[in-house]
Amino acid sequence: MSSSREDIQQQLINHAPEKFRLPFRYALSSERLELTWKEITGEELIQYVIPFLSTHPTIKALDISHNNFREAGAIALAANTTLTTLNVDGIQIGEAGAGALAANTTLTTLHIRYIYLGEAGAIALAGNHTLTSLDVRDNQIGDAGAIALAANTTLTTLNICDNKIGDAGAIALAANTTLTTLDVSQNQIGDAGASAFADNKTLTTLYAFDNKIGDAGVIALAANTTLTTLHIRLNKLGDAGATALAGNQTLTKLDVRNNQIGEVGKSALNQSTQARREEFMKQKLAFLGATGAHDRNNVLLENNNPPIVCLLRQYHYSGVNKGGNKLHKVLLEKIMDYNKPKSLKVII
Predict the structure, then answer these.
(1) 227 neighbors 245 (Cβ within 8 angstroms)
(2) Structure pTM?
(3) Which residue spans within the chain are E strands per DSSP?
(4) Contact, 163 vs 185, CB < 8 A?
């Protein structure tokens, strides 16, 4: 009689070196296996980790970063068909290892930082069509790597911080239409690269700290109407850029620390924060204080917010507002989400 899966798992644990036993036991009751910083060699990976994963397909996430295996280990991991999240930070897997991981069709999240992928590795990863989140920080991918990744159409989150990327790479990334979160911090992006993001309609979060972006780039970027989070500290913007950002009505989180902003720019940002907070509370109180469906419609129409008006009519005509209090409660949360201008948190 063949051994049960549970018996095989227990045998693998009992025969594994001590450093594997506790992580293996924890993984039996979870979907995650943590094996970071354990000096795992390629031989150990193939002898203990790969068999354990194959007998425990419910494990979906593996953190095996900062260990000692190289290309052969990465190729073995790439053959796995049950993992969806993998972290191999700090492991010198080489071009062959990166190519093997790029060919995997079940991973959706991959962390592959600090391993000097270079542009060839980035180009290989750009060809993957199942990854939705990719972190390749500090890999020297350059503009060529960034341009290749910008052409990917499945990624929604991308971290390419500290990769020697300039305006050419930024311009290509700004043209991408699937990314919603992008980190291009600690690169060499200037005004031309920052300006390209002004017309992007899909990004909601942009990290661009420690670049070379000045007032011209920030003024253009301030015209973007979809970004809600912008981290742009350690750049070269001054009062003109800060004043432009103060006029943006979609940002809710803004970090502009360690720039060249004077009292004029700080005042503009502080006034914008206060004005938006007051306007938001005014709209909220106006809605709560309104009586009758007709009055509520007027409040929302005056604030020029068609999505909320449509929601209001939907609830009203479906009979949900039998008793105005229930209508208030149902829609207040919607108003908090949709109403503009939203409150703004600024770190100066």
Answers:
(1) no
(2) 0.84
(3) 32-34, 61-63, 85-87, 109-111, 133-135, 157-159, 181-183, 205-207, 229-231, 253-255, 345-347
(4) no
Cα gap 176→140, rounded to integer Å: 21
Unique residue bearing structure tokens 């290749």: 148
Q: What angle do CA 118, 122, 125 make, to 5 degrees?
A: 145
Q: How far is it, in rounded angstroms, from Cα 169 to Cα 147?
A: 5
Cβ–Cβ contacts within 10 Å for residue 255, how many? 18
> Structure tokens of 189?
């992006």
Cβ pair 48, 20 in contact under 8 A: yes
| Residue 259 backbone dihedrals phi, psi, to 5 degrees | -115, -155
Structure tokens that stand for 329 in this block: 């409660």
Omega before 341 cis (within 30°)?
yes
Angle, in degrees to the nearest 10, between helices 292-302 and 306-317: 160
How many whole angstroms separate alpha carbon 82 and alpha carbon 58?
8
302 to 238, 282, 315, 343: CA distances (angstroms): 36, 12, 19, 19
> Residue 60, SS3?
coil
Averages of pLDDT over runs of 10 residues in the chain (348 residues) are 63 89 93 97 96 94 97 96 98 94 98 95 97 98 98 98 98 98 98 97 98 98 96 96 94 94 93 78 62 48 41 39 49 53 71
Paired tokens of 129: 């069509």
**Whole-number Cα distances in Å, 47 to 11, 29, 51, 80, 287:** 13, 22, 7, 14, 65
Structural domains present in the chain: 60-274 (3.80.10.10), 278-342 (no CATH)
